[in-house]
Structures are given as C-alpha cells and as structure tokens.
Amino acid sequence: MTAPPLPAAVVDAAVDWLVHLWSGEATETSRAQWQRWRAADPLHEQAWRHVEATDARWRTGAPGLAAAIASPARAAGRRRALGGMAALAVAGLAVYAGREQMAMRGWLAGLRTAKGEQRRLHLPDGTELLLNTATALDIDFGPTLRRLRLHSGELLIATAPDPQVPARPFVVDTPAGCAQALGTRLTVRHDTDGPAGEATRVAVFEGAVELRGAASVLRIDAGQAARLPAGGTPMALPPPQAPAWADGVLVASDMRLDAFIDELRRYRPGLVQLAPEVAGLRLSGVFPLADTDRILQALVQVLPVQVHVPVPYWVRIGPA
C-alpha cells in the first residue's frame, strides 16, 4: 500500500530547516530548535528524512551527465546516435535559440547576466541589487527619479534612503507595469514567456511596494506578493518564500516535476524536454544551482525517470 503524502506544510518546514542549516547562519540555539521540531511529531521526522535523503543523494559526488555519456562502453552506440540525430538536434536548437532571441526584450540593455550567472551591484544611492540568471536591466537615475528598467529576468533589491533632498522615488519599470518601492527589500521577476503568459511578479520582504498596472494600483506589504499580467490588473499571490536563488539553491517543496523543470530551464543553457508521462511527478529537496548536470543526475536517483543527452545542450527526460 502506498503511504499517504506528507502534509505540504510539514514538507515546507523541513525544506526551510534544510535551507537554514545550509545557509551558514545556524546557531546552537537554532540547531536545538530544529531538533525539537523533529522530535515534536513523527511526521516532522519523516519529512526531514525524506528531504535529507534527497539532499544526500545530490551530494554524493556522483559523476555528471557528461561523464556518464562519455563512457567508453557506450562510445560506438553514442556515435551512431549522434550521426542519426545531428540534423534534428541542430535544427531543434536553432529553433529554440531563435525563439529565445525574439522573446528577449532589452538585448541592448546596459546590464545583462547569462543563463546560470548572478551579479551583485551597489548603486550610488546605497541600494544593493542582485541580478539573477538571464536578466536584462537598465539603470536610469535622474534628478527627480531613481528608475530601474527590468526587461526580463529577476532582481533582489534592498533599497537605501536617497541621499538627495528631496528624496527621489525608487521605481522598477517592467513591460507589464511599474513597482514603486517604499523603503523595501523585494524581488521583481518578469517572465516574457511564462506558462500563463507575460507577467511581472513582485514579492516584498521588508517595507511595502505599490504595484501599478494599466488601470489600477495594488499595495503589497511585507510578507505579501502579487502578479501583474502584461496589460492587466495586479492580483495577490500566496505569501512568498525567501528567495532561495539568492543563496544559490533551487528549493522544491512537493513540487510538480514540470514546474521544477521550468525553473531549471532558467539556469541551464540549451533545450530541456520533459515527457508528459512524468510531468506530474512530485519532488522535494534543496538543489544547488552551480551544477545543473548534477541536478539532473539527482532526478534519476529520486524519481522514476531517465535522463538522455543525445547531443550537448539537448536533454530529454522521460519515464524510467
């Protein structure tokens, strides 16, 4: 008989504890609190062991996918497969690259990060920025306004009081609308081709933000988030999690595999295809983003899937 799924809140708590222990900020007090949480309920311990096992499989130092497909025993078969797939792979990657290029606004932006790259900046007013993967941004500070133009990608922003008098408003413009920070720590993400269409998402961790759409304004306070579709009206979202990507990890808490792969694609160059038969599988864990090959290897160990790499920059994930 299949065991019933763990409550989502319990899995969330286990993942939060793992992120905390990974962060380097754990103290003797917080470690004692973690141990008390584990002992408080058998479900807590079960969730912790599940998340910890996922993390342990990841860290075992298993060879990356490149090493796996380079096995001498598979060389002949691999050469035959590459010969038969070369034209298809080149054509598929060309279509993929063309679609990304057309979708990417701001290709002449003053600041860009590549897929998998992050960059930290300190602005003249004292504001701190962390640019996430595949982000295109312009900075436009003038006499009356501090403005960021986010064309695509994601930012973590810790605003500083403006040294000028009178203080200039701090705004982030995106293709969907405008977010004005009111003494704030926040994330702003703009997806040009997300599953639900082009949209901006804002999450606030300190202070507040006014999110302006085409015809309405929504105030978002600390612990709140909202989504603004292009040309639409701001809509409240569930309370946000801390931005794990700022710590270099991708956190999954009872997450569908298709949603997980959507996030992974933001950090991995090339084409990642997922078979519909496995899209609904669910996983939990903390996956560092520095090596996406090992993340794919971990999927094979924790889910009934197989990962096939016909050519570099082309990954296919299907049922085992």
TrEMBL record:
Organism listed in the record: Pseudorhodoferax aquiterrae
Gene3D superfamilies linked: 2.60.120.1440
Protein known as: Sensor
Location of the FecR protein domain: 111-210
Domain FecR N-terminal: 12-53
Transmembrane regions listed in the UniProt entry: none
Any matching Pfam family: DUF4880
Domain of life the protein comes from: Bacteria
